[in-house]
Amino acid sequence: MGEVVPTAGRCTASVKSNLRMIKRVTIKTSSQGLHEFTAQVERVVRESGAHEGLCTLFVRHTSASLLIQENADPSAKRDLDRWLNRLVPEDDALYTHTTEDPDDMLAHVKASLTATYALRARESEAMARRTR
Q: 3-state DSSP call for residue 82?
């Protein structure tokens, strides 16, 4: 349903969409590190039929993070993974949170160091094209 909004003597029409979709995507991993799951998210967005909108990704685990990085050259991911491992080493004597898995505390630290981004669907498509 459209809505007409007067703006400085002109009328502009905006269309409100009621499209709302919640889809759970599970990413199974066998090790710590950076894991690519762009294809799974692209599939969900494509199947939604939306041409523009906001795709919100929520990570349910407290020692995980979302990170958008270049994927045109695999060495970028490899270098970032190595840098994070050097910055946040396993078995650091400073860690006192050791009751869960041996790598749990370092995962918490890495998750706190990496940022989470929000992009509109069109922006993420353009970014994906530039980095392929």
A: helix
CATH architecture of the region 27-131:
Sandwich (2.60)
3-state DSSP call for residue 72? coil
Residue 125, helix vs strand vs coil? helix
Question: Measured in whole angstroms, how far is the alpha carbon of residue 99 from the centre of its chain?
Answer: 28
Query: Which helix (H) or strand (E) covers residue 131, if one does?
Result: helix 121-131
Q: Does the reported pTM lie above 0.85?
A: no
The Cβ of residue 110 has, within 10 Å, a number of other Cβ atoms equal to 22
HSE on the CB side for 35, CA within 13 Å? 13
pLDDT in tens, 21-62: 788 888 888 888 888 888 998 898 888 888 778 888 888 777
Domain coordinates of the chain in residue numbers?
27-131
